[in-house]
Amino acid sequence: MKTYSFIHPMLVACGLALIALPTFAQENENGKNSKEEGNRNVMLNASSANGPREIQIGLPSADVNVLENGLPVTYATNPHSVNSVWRSDASLSHVGLLKISETAITTGNIGYAVNSFTKLGQDGFHGTLNYKTNHFGLQEFSLNVNGSLGHDWFYSGNIYQDFDPGTFKLRSSANQDRTQIYKAALTKRYAGTKGELTLMYEYSNSHPVYTYATQSAPFIYVGDGSVKEYGDFKLGTTSYLPTDATMVYRDIRDGKLKKTSLYDASENRSSQFSLMNRYNFDETLSWNTTLRFDHAHGALVYQTPMSLINVKGNSNYNYLVQGLDGKMTAYTGDYVQTRMSCLNGGNINEFLLTSELSKKFKTSTLRLGFNEWYYHINYASNTTMYDQTVPSDGSYAERTYDANLRSSYFYDFNKNASEYYNAHENKLAFYFTHDWDITPKFNVYYGARLEWQKLAGKNLAVQNANGDFVGRFADYYIGATAADGTKIELRDIDYDWFNYDLTAALTYKITDHFGLTGDFTYLVQHPKLESFAPATLPNVDKISVPLGRAGIYYNNSWISLTSLFSYISKTNNNSTLNLQHGSEILAAPLTYDIQTIGWTTDAVMHPFKGFEFHWLFTYQRPTYKKYETSVTFSDGYVGKIDATGKTVAEIPRVLVELDPSYMILPNLKAWMSFRYFSKTYANINDAYYFNGHWETFGGLNWSVNKMLDLGCTVVNFLNQTGAKGSIAGAELITKDDAKDIKNVLMTGSYLRPFTVEFTASLKF
């Protein structure tokens, strides 16, 4: 019998690349350190039309990936995603990318973070209206107005509206993303240049249906790393969701059967109050404090493909579909797709406070910081299964069910990846950094973070009389009884941990143009609250993340170049695999390590006036360490995973970025961006793989006058089509199993299709 599996996307998010970006020389020609990276095209995203690009580092992604005014816009991205509360719109005065070391010290997380600041009121009256559309019908508006009220009082207000139908029409909702965000800020500036005090309120309401529900499709896996389209089904422009978006589920909290829609189940609401104070004691000593309270409801919906069943000519199946007249008729298609819906949602209260004191000396800058971050959530992920048709003619899919097994569409409520916790997490941290020019040629940057992490509440990691954890089962909920008689009841969780982060960077200028550079960051963390969501308790041992980079830089009048060798690893990653054998799905918890070595060269060149060329080359070898787990299915079959030493799935070994631009006229810029990703494996056992592909962008930016800017961007102008990521239900497939598999229908995610976007920005 063929065996399938599924990696739960909330629990395993493998990174794409260890990218050793330009460190010091390209930020400042004197080699001094900087908080931010350059040349990364943060908002140029090949996966989303309205979110920031995710620059990952070969590790499971961290939660803190976007900051506004020094605080994470969401404490945890599941179930409250970044895009539901933040957009790079007219309300922002700055958007950049924090370095790994800066993110580690100030937030306690590993990875790059988008760094943004709110646009506050200025003297006089100022307005900005941004508009964006594409040929699929996107309508995005952002309006900011700000000015003075007199007596050193200032105001700023912003309205953001997004109507995004996606790249194909859903019958179940008008838009794949409907988001509205409102901001209002009132600022009091102190006398002279002493600083300012700002009170800000933000309300957002967002339905990001597209986030994890619409990004899968069927394709034919040829067997040589390529795919071809299935009949008339067009990857990226054909809907693979049923026309009926209604979902029936059993609420894990009270056991009742309930009904919702895809649009309603993905509703996010947030009310945020912020207070920001910046005070300059003198020209060398400043104090910045930002606090925010957020009362929110976060929600994400995963519509995860599981297995494809070939029902052509098989009398064992009796699949029925409901026609437009409401009558059930026999399904005559060749395949049936099983799907698991994960309805993630929770009510959230966040209180985040960060305060920093910065002192400039003659040859150095010292910074002392403090975090008090509190997060409480009542979270549940209710899961439900259904089957759907797989139309080869490119028409809309419909729900179906096997009349031999059941009499309705939905089944196995909460059996697979259901999750629950009602708990809080608190992080209290102190940190410092010191940026010191020891000599005109030698710069040292170092820092440390000391953090106390407190985690307490209740979850559903229930143990039976033998001390074994009780797995999820059909119709699982609080108060249900397992087959062995165990009552499903809440259990307490209570942990205290001490975490710390260290970082150091050295830059030595051998000549005015050439020098040596290197940096090292070491983090010690412990599991976050989300690790306590499954049916078993996580490994609570410390998580260590060392990152080291060393290399050279060279600057002259026409080139800035950095070349670095890199090493990064992470121990004790907690994860859960949902492994499928036949029609049975079992959760397999595991703890694993990842190690990545790499070499990156990054350069920005200006060979002649008006022309700039940025290029980046990365070679890396990301591998699993200690990646083993197994489960025993009801028929006795043992599903084993042993990926130790194998290449990490979905991560290419070679990445190339080419970004040329040319000023045709003083007010007209033409630009392109090419990103190459080499061969990637599409399952943990390295059995399936996808060939390398290009992600391409290009456009024109025209500054018509001081008030009006126009732009045109073409996404995927090479019009590449194909699959990416992983193949659904394939993790137990080995290389021996896959060697003879050719021209087989499979399911996975796909490249963003050819898209033409238009933008306009009016300042008044």
Entry summary:
It is built from four helices and 41 strands. With 764 residues, it is mostly beta strands.
Helix content: under 10%
Low-pLDDT segments: 1-33
Q: Counting H and I runs of at least 4 residues, what is the number of helices?
A: 4
The rounded Rg comes to: 26 Å
What about the largest sheet?
22 strands, antiparallel, barrel
Number of strands: 41
| Outline type | globular
Structural category:
mainly beta
The portion of residues forming beta strands comes to: over 45%
Give a verbal description of the structure.
By secondary structure, this protein is mainly β. The chain contains four helices and 41 strands. The strands form six sheets. The protein has a 22-stranded antiparallel beta barrel. It is globular, with a radius of gyration of 26 Å. The termini are far apart.
Which terms would index this structure?
22-stranded antiparallel barrel; disordered N terminus; mainly beta; single chain; five-stranded mixed sheet; 4 helices
Question: How are the SSEs ordered, and which strands pair?
Answer:
Elements lengths: L2 E5 L28 E2 L28 E3 L2 E2 L19 E7 L1 H8 L5 E6 L6 E10 L4 E12 L2 E12 L12 E13 L5 E14 L1 H4 L3 E5 L5 E3 L16 E5 L6 E5 H4 L2 E13 L4 E26 L8 E4 L5 E3 L4 E26 L3 E26 L9 E4 L16 E21 L2 E18 L31 E19 L4 E12 L17 E13 L3 E23 L2 E22 L5 E15 L2 E5 L5 E5 L11 E12 L2 E10 L2 E2 L7 E2 L2 E11 L4 E8 L7 E5 L7 H4 L5 E7 L4 E9 L1
Parallel strand pairs: 3-6
Antiparallel strand pairs: 1-28, 2-5, 3-4, 5-6, 7-8, 7-41, 8-9, 9-10, 10-11, 11-16, 12-13, 12-40, 14-15, 16-17, 17-20, 18-19, 18-22, 20-21, 21-22, 21-23, 23-24, 24-25, 25-26, 26-27, 27-28, 28-29, 29-30, 30-33, 31-32, 33-34, 34-37, 35-36, 37-38, 38-41, 39-40
